[in-house]
Amino acid sequence: MKGPYRQKPLGAIALLAPRFPRLKEWAYAGTFFELTGAAASHVARGDDEGTLIWPLLFAVPTVISWALRPQSRTLGVLFPGDGQSSNQRGIKPALACKDHPKKVA
To answer: Minimal CA–CA distance to 23: which of 64, 62, 75, 68?
Structure first.
């Protein structure tokens, strides 16, 4: 097995293996980019709709699987629904650079 075909079984193993949420995020992203990139390539080549639809049909379950995965397999909250601000969720604001103060006109 050479080339890009080696990555597909590795991505499937990463998605099925327990733990490793960051690795799963990258596997989902890689699968999505590969499938949507294939669809874009078919469009650029001027292929017919029958060829274009297959990568997109496989991309849809990938997105659904990613969006509906259990909380234990996520890196954080995707869409906070409780009205918390970013500071309440533990996201720290960026600090101003002291070496480059803001110029006031």
So the answer is: 75
pLDDT tens-digit profile of 14-55? 888 888 888 888 999 999 999 999 999 999 999 998 888 999
Q: Where are the domains of the chain?
A: 3-68
d(C-alpha 94, C-alpha 92), whole Å: 7
In a 10 Å sphere around its CB, with 0-12 CB exposed, 13-18 middle and 19+ buried, how is residue 32 labelled?
middle
* pTM exceeding 0.70: no
Q: In Å, what is the CA distance from 41 to each residue of 33, 47, 90?
A: 12, 9, 40
Check: CB of residue 15 under 8 Å from CB of residue 24: yes
Rounded to 5 degrees, φ, ψ at 72 are -65, -15
